[in-house]
Amino acid sequence: MTSLIVDTPSFAPLDEPLKEKSSIRDALIYPLHKRLQELEGIKQVVFYSLLTLEKEHLPSIILKDELDSIELNGGAWKHSLDVELILYTLSQKERESLLLKVLDILKTNLIVDSLSISREKLESAELEVYALSLKLNLKYLSEAFNV
Questions:
Q1: 23 DSSP 8-state letter
Q2: Reduced to 3 states, what is the DSSP secondary structure of residue 56?
Q3: Paired sense of beta strands 76-89 and 128-142, if any
Q4: CA atoms within 13 A on the CB side of 41
Q5: What digits encode the pLDDT tens for the residues 44-60?
């Protein structure tokens, strides 16, 4: 079995199952996680994880919410949440096809303030993996401080 290991910062226990929504932030992240899992062809979507990229588990997505900036905005709190989606596939064609599906989810379900995309190819002796990172900034308001 050929594999590559990708290490991502772990702010939550590895592969911890999603719990009940407890904040507005969670109300954005949980549905996004669910919609990504429903994409045809995606084998796993994980939060902040040490992910072993094995051929039989690809394509996969790592979902990370990285930074939540908060400021007072006329009696409400204005939040700016940085999120990164990292997509791993076995081919460039599959990567680009899944990118279009992910962008479709983002444009129909979330208020995305900014978006950047970077691509790379990861290689081992026997496995080529095509990675794509989407960094996006989500905006939302809440009446009380709630992250």
A1: S
A2: helix
A3: antiparallel
A4: 13
A5: 898 876 667 788 889 99
> How high is the pLDDT of residue 147?
52
- Is the preceding omega at residue 31 within 30 degrees of 0, hence cis? no
The answer to whether the beta carbons of residues 113 and 141 sit under 8 Å apart is no
Q: Which helix (H) or strand (E) holds 108?
A: helix 92-109
Residue type, 94: E
Residue 136's identity, in one-letter code, is L
In order of 3, 37, 40, 57, 121, the CA distances from 82 in angstroms are 29, 20, 26, 26, 24
Q: Would you call the peptide bond into 59 cis, given omega within 30 degrees of 0 as the criterion? A: yes
**79, 70 in Cβ contact below 8 A?**
yes
Biggest CA pair distance of the chain: 57
**Global pTM value:** 0.74
Angle between helices 24-37 and 92-109 (to 10 degrees): 140
